[in-house]
């Protein structure tokens, strides 16, 4: 009775049946249980229940709160329901980037900019922190005062410890620079690993459509607008799945497609070569201008490189898009190709830009020697009448603005990057406004008075360009990583830019864009974007690392001035701030004899882990296949048992057939093609008089044939064996690869079961004819019963 | 007077369900039921009056208003199969849809909900109706037909062209979303309980 009460909840009886049963059982239980522990135990129990409920409610509220705290969640959900998961994936990526930039910003702001602003010498106290006299006339624009502030490298003083906290400024600057890169690597790789885990574990698409149809409605929805969004998203998701299904069934003329694809790739290569040459040409021209002095030329010549890069970045992707219509790929694959090509384009542009920058750096360094010479002359002039000795201190008060300054290539690099990012941002926003918004307005309002239908015909409303936007975002981030060491203001600038972008693009998408014609699902994990981001991260930290390692810092500006290399600050810290044994340990550890074997060991470990993961994947797939085959068998068995029940067979048939199926499934594990395997079993089942079963399974040519023979044990010993001694005979012919969603077996399984009843011999021949997907006939089973 | 009636109901509930948690929910459920049509539903249920609320009232509840399957839900749980529910049916419905109900029970009732013609099989026409209700008739005929064929292909294990309860359960038990999806009405209720009533129940039971 107690068990009945406990399980009553799980029974599918209507309430009016449950209630009386429950009442009866409770009365019964009460009568025989006694009143022990009723009074006190009840209070404690009720209290415990209340606390548990309160805890559950608290947990649920906290979850709701956490979900509500995620920024822009509702916006993105709305976009997803109208435009599909690929467009939404862009916005999710944008939001994730915003998170990373927030951390980078907090690092640079908190550990570099704020200490320098608060604890170091203020503006105007030493020469490097003041705008020089010559420049003060036109210092009011961005290049002037901003250059001599915490925002750029040149402002920082090389004093080893500043303020009352003895904050090690140069060390902090260096470590923050390294730390931002390290953090970015860690985050990207962690996200890739997490995506890979989700993807590999839950790759079960065997019930894709069934789950979509039965489990996609969210019964929690109580709001009409949310319901509308949910309907839209369900419809979109069905359309996506249908497109996937159709794509996997298409088969075209292969040769024509291949030829077109080769042609398209050739055209794309031509475009890339053309753009590379154009940038090279422009950079050479700008170097010529720089040599002649920039004052002779107007705005266009000064900013030529930036403008050309931005324009190329705007027009070439459109060209690639047109070319890609030749290729006729699945939309997701076409997107990946598009991304790859634009990636190559941007990479070429960026590296040409860096080469141009390197030329300018070398120019400045050549200038340094001249300036050093000039400064000694100037100092000598200062002491002309007073102290002719080589005293190091300057007793004469000279206004810091008047001291001649050395060239500062780091600040110049930082400024170039800032300029590049700003022009890039402006270009993006202007193209957005003109390309999307203005176009939508024109189409909408000129439609009344135009010859052809603007909405269906030529311009029509634009679709959201996922690939272009994603790449823009990735390259933007690459530029930030490159320049953050020389201009600590870059993460802050990027944060602002991303914030504005989010709102602007969300508005633009909902207002001016229409959903794509063919809605397709973004690749299940975002690993494609992550992989590109990783590559960009690697490529953009290379130039910075090169400059840190090989170029000596300027002598007159920045936190590393006076050192021969920037990373000398680490050496200095180790020598002065740490105890002696620490330095010794470090020098032992960085001995090449120790480092090289360690590297080798790591490489071997990586190789080993990679190969084991491959074998696990393979084993996983095999197990899945076996599971599917066993499912099929078990369903058949259930049918056989159900059928046999109705024929009033005795228990031994059921027991023996179930045990033989067990052995059969065991044999699946050790079955290899072409090799027959024989499993014998004899059973001592106490209540039932079971026969011995003989199981023979052969697998060959894509079929598996199973024979099960059951023989009564007692009769085996006697010499006379009649027909009745063979208890049952079961034959099964299975095509392999059964029960997968896409591929139907070439022909159908056949099952034949012969068994003896007290008076009759029963023969069942079960033949399943599975129709193809396109036909509408229902499957037929033929059963022969003699 | 309200208190006396409340005591009577609570007394009944107390006799049937000594579990504190169940009483708490049941009295709230009863008041939700009553709030739909106060003039029809008496406070005193000791004589077990035969009161049925018509489908229109049930379908206008905020939890069910936007659900595309509300009519089917009401039909499945009602005694007469038309959607007119007594208090027992109402309690039944919410107990199955609550988060406490076990997975198999939900699967059983989900099967009944999706079986439009009540023949204990989900055949192709049932699937088509389900799909049209889910997408509000936005998909074309071809697409609907394709999806239904695909579903039968995926889930039909005994190959008779329609889904039986075993097929359905086999498929739904593996679905990652199923539990989350079929109702969490429980937490919708937590806000509607009035303080005095709660105290009363506590007094009576403790």
UniProtKB/TrEMBL annotation, chain A:
Keyword annotations: Membrane, Transmembrane, Transmembrane helix
UniProt GO cellular component terms: plasma membrane
Protein name, entry field: Transmembrane channel-like protein
GO MF term set: mechanosensitive monoatomic ion channel activity
Domain of life of the source: Eukaryota
Family: Belongs to the TMC family.
Organism per entry: Pygocentrus nattereri
GO biological process terms held by the UniProt record: detection of mechanical stimulus involved in sensory perception of sound; vestibular reflex
Entries under PANTHER family matching the protein: TRANSMEMBRANE CHANNEL-LIKE PROTEIN 1, TRANSMEMBRANE CHANNEL-RELATED
Pfam short name (any one): TMC
Limits of the TMC domain: 408-523
Membrane topology field: Multi-pass membrane protein
Automatic annotation (TrEMBL), chain B:
Record-annotated EF-hand domain positions: 102-137, 143-178
Name of a matching Pfam family: EF-hand_7
Superkingdom of origin: Eukaryota
Sorted UniProt keywords: Calcium, Magnesium, Metal-binding, Repeat
Gene Ontology MF term list: calcium ion binding; magnesium ion binding
Gene3D superfamilies in the record: EF-hand (1.10.238.10)
InterPro entries referenced in this protein's UniProt entry, alphabetically: CIBP, EF-hand-dom_pair, EF_Hand_1_Ca_BS, EF_hand_dom
Alphabetical list of SMART domains matching this protein: EFh (SM00054)
The keyword Magnesium is assigned to this record: yes
Example of a GO biological process term: calcium ion homeostasis
Endoplasmic reticulum found in the keyword field: no
Name this protein carries in UniProt: EF-hand domain-containing protein
Organism: Pygocentrus nattereri (Red-bellied piranha)
